[in-house]
Design goal:
Elements: H1 13-38, H2 47-67, H3 73-97, H4 110-132, H5 140-177, H6 182-187, H7 190-210, H8 212-227, H9 230-247, H10 250-254, H11 258-277, H12 288-319, H13 323-347, H14 356-374, H15 381-394, H16 405-410, H17 413-424, H18 432-443, E1 463-465, E2 495-500, E3 509-514, E4 517-524, E5 527-534, H19 540-547, E6 551-554, E7 562-565, E8 568-574
Length: about 600
C-alpha cells in the first residue's frame, strides 16, 4: 500500500520517528476500539460509527506509512483525506447492513477488510506512480518497480511481526517454567498486543525502506523463481483444454465448483505471466522458453475464463444470485479484460507481449472501480441477492417449501432480515400462508444449524403419520427442550412418523424420520423422551415409501424390534446400553438384548 524509495539506502530520522509514532498511535486506537466493543457500548445507531472508525484506523495509518518520503506533501494530504473518506464510508455502510444478533462481531467482516486492502494497494500505487511521473498516468516501468517491490516489503513486514510474536510467546513460556506468570499474561493483554503489533509493523516498513536495494534483490529472486513456474502452469492449462473435448462439460459441472477453480487457474496464469514479463523484453530477458510459455499462456487464459463465465451463467439461471456468485461475476468481469488484452498482446506486432502493459493498467483501474461498487450501495451483493431470490419466489421459479429462508436469516445481512420479516407478515399472494409460516419459524432461529422453533399451532402439520392414524396424545403438546424437540427439524419439510408398539407391551412408541435422523421416543411416567435410534441410512425414497405405507414393524420377543422400509431392515438401537454384569465367579451373564418395557400410566 506504499511505494517508499530511499536514496542511497538512507532514510531521515524524522521519517523514522513519524512512522513509529503512526504505528504506535494506530495500536492505541485499535485498543480503544476493542474496549468500546468489549464493554457492549455498540447498538444499532453506533454500529455504523464503530465500523467507520475501525476501517479508518485499520487502513489510513498504513497508507500514511507508505506515503511518507514517497509522495509530495500536497499529494499525501489529498490522498490521505480521500482514503479516510472512502474507507470510513465503506465501514459506515457495512455497519448499516450488518446484523449483530447473528453472533458476528461488530468489526468489519473479512470480505470487506480483505478486498479493501487489495483495492487500496492497487489504488495507492496508481497514485504514487502518477505523482512520481508528474502526470495522471505513469510509465509501466514505474508501476512495476513500485508495486512489486512494495509487495515484497509488505510480505517481509508481516513475517517480521510474526517472528516478533513467536519470540514473545517463547519468552512467556520460558518465564512460565520458573513460575513467573505475569510475562505471558502481559503479552496477551490487548493494551500490549495492539500497540506492539502495529509499532513493529511500522518499524519493519521503515527498515525495508532503508534497505531498498536488498528488497529489490529479494524481489528479483522471487520473480525469477515464479517465472519458471509459468511453463509448468501453461502445460497444465493447455493439457486441460485439449482433454476437455473428450471428457465433456458434464464432469466439470458435477464438481459444483468449476467456475471458482477455472478462475483461480486463470488468476495463477496471470500472476506467473507478469512474473515472467517483469519490465518487458530486454536484450537477455526473458529466455526463449519463457517467451513461448508466455505466448501459450496469453492464448489459453481466454477459453478458461469463457468456460468459467458459462458455468456461472448456468448456475445463476438455475439457483439465482447469492453473494458468492456476485463476487464470481465481479471476478469474471476483471478476468475477461485480462484475457482479451493478453490474447491481443500475443498477436500484436512489436516487442514480446508489449500490449500486456496497457491491459494491466486498465485492469488495475477496473479492479478498484468494481471493488468500490461491491462494497457500496451501487452493487451490494446482499441486496442484489435478496432481490433476485425474492423475485424467483414471487414468479414461481422456486416453491415456498424449497425456498432458502436460512439464507435470508444468516447470510444476507440486514437486507435479508428485512425481507424475511416482510415474508413473515405476508398475507396475500400464492402460498402466502405457507411462506409466512416458514419465515416466522426461521426468524426464531438463533443459529443456522440449530433445530427450528415450530409454533404450537403448526406442530401438527409438521409430522405425517406413516400409514395414516394419529400421534399419541401429549406427544406434540409436551414442552420439549430446544434441542430435544422431535419436530424441531421439520419446519422446512414435513417429517414422517411411525407409531407402533415396539415392545409388545400395548403401549405405543414413536419413530420420527427427519433430515436423515431416525429417532425413537417412548413415554415413561407421563413424559416422552428419546430412547433409541434406528440403524442404517435413511434414503430419500424412504420418505415416499413411509407415506405410501410400504413399511412393517417386526416385534420379536427375543430381541429388539425393527422397522422394515421397502424390504430394507432398520434395527432399533437403544441410546444407552449397560455393560454386562459379572458374577462373583468371573463368568459374564449375558443379558437379554430386549430392554424391559417402560412403566406407563
Amino acid at each position: 500500500m506504499f511505494a517508499g524509495e530511499t536514496d542511497h539506502g538512507q532514510a531521515s530520522r524524522p521519517i523514522a520517528i513519524a512512522r513509529v509514532a503512526i504505528g504506535f498511535a494506530q495500536g492505541l486506537a485499535l485498543y480503544g476500539l476493542n474496549e468500546w466493543e468489549k464493554h457492549g457500548l455498540i447498538d444499532g445507531v453506533s454500529s455504523p460509527l464503530f465500523c467507520a472508525c475501525a476501517m479508518l484506523i485499520l487502513f489510513l495509518p498504513v497508507v500514511l506509512l507508505g506515503g511518507l518520503h514517497t509522495l509530495r506533501t500536497r499529494t499525501l494530504v489529498i490522498w490521505g483525506v480521500a482514503v479516510a473518506v472512502v474507507v470510513a464510508a465503506l465501514g459506515a455502510y457495512h455497519g448499516t447492513i450488518a446484523v449483530p444478533d447473528m453472533g458476528a462481531e461488530h468489526w468489519p467482516g473479512p470480505p470487506l477488510v480483505i478486498f479493501t486492502a487489495v483495492g487500496l494497494f492497487i489504488a495507492h500505487h496508481l497514485v504514487t506512480g502518477a505523482d512520481a511521473d508528474r502526470g495522471w498516468i505513469a510509465s509501466y516501468d514505474r508501476y512495476f518497480e513500485q508495486t512489486w517491490k512494495d509487495g515484497v516489503r509488505l510480505a517481509l513486514a508481516v513475517l517480521f511481526v510474526g517472528a516478533l510474536w513467536l519470540l514473545l510467546w517463547l519468552g512467556g513460556a520460558l518465564f512460565d517454567l520458573i513460575g513467573i506468570k505475569w510475562v505471558g499474561e502481559t503479552i496477551q493483554k490487548p493494551w500490549f498486543a495492539f500497540p506492539a503489533t502495529t509499532t513493529f509493523f511500522a518499524l519493519a516498513i521503515h527498515l525495508t525502506d532503508v534497505r531498498a536495494s536488498l528488497v529489490r534483490g529479494i524481489r528479483t529472486v522471487a520473480l525469477t523463481l515464479l517465472s519458471w513456474l509459468l511453463p509448468v502452469m501453461a502445460v497444465i492449462g493447455a493439457g486441460f483444454l485439449i482433454a476437455l473435448p473428450f471428457t465433456g462439460l458434464t464432469l466439470l459441472w458435477d464438481t459444483k465448483s468449476a467456475a471458482s477453480i477455472l478462475l483461480s487457474a486463470a488468476a495463477a496464469l496471470i500472476v506467473l505471466l507478469n512474473a515472467a514479463y517483469q519490465e518487458g523484453e530486454a536484450e537477455d530477458h526473458p529466455p526463449v522458453a519463457l517467451k513461448w510459455a508466455g505466448r501459450i499462456t496469453g492464448v489459453i487464459i481466454a477459453p478458461l475464463v469463457a468456460i468459467a463465465a458459462y458455468g456461472l451463467i448456468l448456475r445463476i439461471g438455475q439457483y439465482g444470485l447469492t453473494p458468492d456468485r456476485i463476487y464470481g461475476v465481479a471476478c469474471t468481469i476483471v478476468a475477461v479484460v485480462y484475457s482479451v488484452g493478453y490474447a491481443a498482446s500475443v498477436f500484436w506486432p512489436g516487442p514480446w507481449l508489449k500490449r500486456l502493459e496497457v491491459t494491466n493498467v486498465i485492469a488495475a483501474h477496473l479492479v478498484v472501480a468494481v471493488l468500490l461498487a461491491l462494497f457500496s450501495p451501487l452493487a451490494n451483493p446482499s441486496r442484489l441477492s435478496v432481490n433476485d431470490q425474492l423475485a424467483r419466489l414471487d414468479r414461481g421459479a422456486v416453491t415456498p417449501d424449497k425456498f432458502d429462508y436460512l439464507f435470508l436469516r444468516f447470510e444476507a445481512g440486514k437486507p435479508g432480515m428485512d425481507a424475511l420479516k416482510a415474508l413473515a407478515a405476508r398475507k396475500t399472494g400464492p402460498g402466502a400462508a405457507e411462506i409466512a409460516k416458514r419465515a416466522k419459524s426461521t426468524l426464531a432461529r438463533r443459529t443456522r444449524y440449530e433445530a427450528a422453533v415450530v409454533a404450537p399451532e403448526d406442530r401438527k402439520d409438521q409430522v405425517a403419520v406413516a400409514g395414516g392414524g394419529t400421534l399419541p396424545p401429549g406427544f406434540l403438546e409436551q414442552t420439549w427442550g430446544r434441542f430435544e424437540d422431535p419436530v424441531g427439524n421439520c419446519a422446512d419439510r414435513a417429517c414422517v412418523a411411525v407409531v407402533a408398539d415396539l415392545y409388545g407391551d400395548a403401549a405405543p412408541e414413536v419413530v420420527v424420520f427427519s433430515l436423515g435422523q431416525k429417532r425413537a421416543y417412548r413415554q415413561e411416567n407421563g413424559v416422552w423422551s428419546e430412547f433409541a435410534t434406528l440403524s442404517g441410512r435413511y434414503c430419500l425414497k424412504d420418505d415416499e415409501a413411509l407415506r405410501a405405507g410400504r413399511f412393517a414393524v417386526n416385534v420379536d420377543p427375543r430381541s429388539v424390534a425393527d422397522v422394515v422400509i421397502d424390504g430394507r431392515r432398520m434395527a432399533l438401537v437403544p441410546n444407552e446400553e449397560k455393560c454386562p454384569e459379572e458374577t462373583t465367579s468371573g463368568v459374564t451373564n449375558v443379558p437379554v438384548s430386549k430392554p424391559p418395557p417402560p412403566e406407563t400410566k
